[in-house]
Amino acid sequence: MLQDQEVHAAEMERTFIAIKPDGVQRGLISEIVSRFERKGYKLVAIKLVVPSKQFAEKHYHDLKERPFFNGLCDFLSSGPVLAMVWEGEGVIKYGRKLIGATDPSKSEPGTIRGDLAVVVGRNIIHGSDGPETAKDEIALWFQPKELVSYTSNEEKWIYGVN
Ligand code: IDP
Ligand code: MG
């Protein structure tokens, strides 16, 4: 039979979250990081990078037929992006909830985009939309050795597991 800790570990998932150049330039890093941190998710990787246009095109490859693709990739590669991996139970789906709808004019108040952004082309943050994308995006942005596995002292209080 699985021990509590093993069940807990098996349920852990990781998602790729990035603060786009507009969020970085607007000084919103600490505000955004703190929302994930205070929720109880665990930061396992973080770095500030200026992606090349080619890299941005890889990241957004599934949108290449969309009319805004070129402008979007120009924008993502226009300045520093804060790339992160966050870990926690249900973090992929709930991370998207914290972020809010793609178009900030439709995002609920209380969400990151709802509270901090106005237009879809400058919606300050990216989050993986499912387990497969999360896996692909983490592998695109980070080398395995950049992902830090550790036990947070808070976990037993967040999950109630000894
Ligand atoms: P998501 O970021 O909420 O997952 P996607 O549909 O994957 O939304 O689109 C990726 C990004 O492309 C959005 O975050 C936004 O910056 C941009 N985008 C999406 N739709 C439009 C649009 O209609 N006009 C301009 N930019 C858009
Ligand atoms: Mg998306």
UniProtKB/TrEMBL annotation:
Cite the EC number. Answer: 2.7.4.6
Report the family membership. Answer: Belongs to the NDK family.
Fragment boundaries within the full protein? 87 to 248 of 248
Q: Where is the active site?
A: H126
- Organism domain of life: Eukaryota
Q: What GO cellular component entries does it have? A: chloroplast thylakoid lumen
Which coarse location class applies to the principal site listed for this UniProt protein?
Answer: plastid
Q: Where is the Nucleoside diphosphate kinase-like domain?
A: 12-149
Which annotated residues bind ATP? Answer: K20, F68, R96, T102, R113, N123
User: Keywords, A to Z?
Assistant: ATP-binding, Kinase, Magnesium, Metal-binding, Nucleotide metabolism, Nucleotide-binding, Transferase
Catalysed reaction(s)? a ribonucleoside 5'-diphosphate + ATP = a ribonucleoside 5'-triphosphate + ADP; a 2'-deoxyribonucleoside 5'-diphosphate + ATP = a 2'-deoxyribonucleoside 5'-triphosphate + ADP
- Tagged with keyword Secreted: no
Please state what the protein is called: Nucleoside diphosphate kinase
Claim: Magnesium is one of the keywords in the record: yes
